[in-house]
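Look over both lines:
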Amino acid sequence: MIPGDRAGRALAAVIDRVTVTEAEVGARFPLYADPVDGRWRTTGRGSWTGGFWAGLLWLRARYTGDAAHRRAAADCTARLAPWAESDTATRGLIFWYATAPAFDAPGAVALRAKAARACLDSYDPEAGIVPWGAALGGPRLLARADAVPGLVPLLATAGSEGVVVAAAHLHRHLDLALGPQGAGSGGRPRPAWEFDPAAGWSPCADPAPGWSRGEAWLLLAVADALLHPDLAGRRTERLALAAEQLLVRTRALTGRLVPPDEASRPRGPVDTSAAAITAVALLKLSRARAPRARACERRAVAILDRLAGSHLSEPGSGRPPGMLLDGCYDAAKGLAVRHEVIWGDFFLALGLAALADLVDITRV
């Protein structure tokens, strides 16, 4: 376990940071914060990250038990409703993480059901996926690693048809990323593909193999599928094999605890958000009794310990305490490469909350 009370102190600091952030951003959604002064860059609608802010507010409500905090989380979640009909597979990130920690609050449950149905209706049977979509710009018929986490458990809530589509969506991504044509340099999974109805699938140059957050997203999606009885019942052996392949090919158990944003640039920016996502995925794999479950749990704890001990801002540092520093928003564009990012905060808080038995990691 994490030595002493470091996990408890770290969780308290992250939760306190949520309250500071709330006062700063008001009804807007935080994206990333300056590593020097902690000031947030925000968006009015939430973008693909809005669900992580709502999720953090729900985690704070669980931590404090305060009814006002629960109302704030519910209000924030409700503000995400316009995204339900948006053409983007990142609705999985938005709506699963905004609602899964929500105490089964009626408003969150209803919004999750609406979003799940809308995503189900977006399924493209020829491509075999819920497409990346056009809402965030770029080509629509993409299969990207960040289109899988969240969307798999979200779709699975939409009845038997949703389970079928969730499994198809996940397995198509795994076929592409882990198949013979999916291996990049060093065997790293290829995280992005484009579909042409005439020519089929072709790999995208960006993001390239070795994108650590993409690898973490894939591992998380597989872990969620193994934890869902219906999804695990569909090609269980394939899911277990995919977990093993991802663990080996991404060095999730043997590489640096906090990986570089891009494996091809080991001296470039690291990404603590990728580390936090990986830690949560490994905790889930350990609960799913996946291959090397004990090793997964030990590694998850080691990652969370490193994040809490070396990358979390402390009182007296000249910046607000409780910031998970060294997150990387988009290294290719040079955008916020050593910053606090809202999804990094969420997954660190979720991992620490799971260690404290504040949440059931198998359900969030």
Notes: Strands lie at 29-33, 40-43, 142-144, 192-196, 200-203, 340-341. Residues 184 and 208 are 8 Å apart (CA to CA). The radius of gyration is 19 Å.
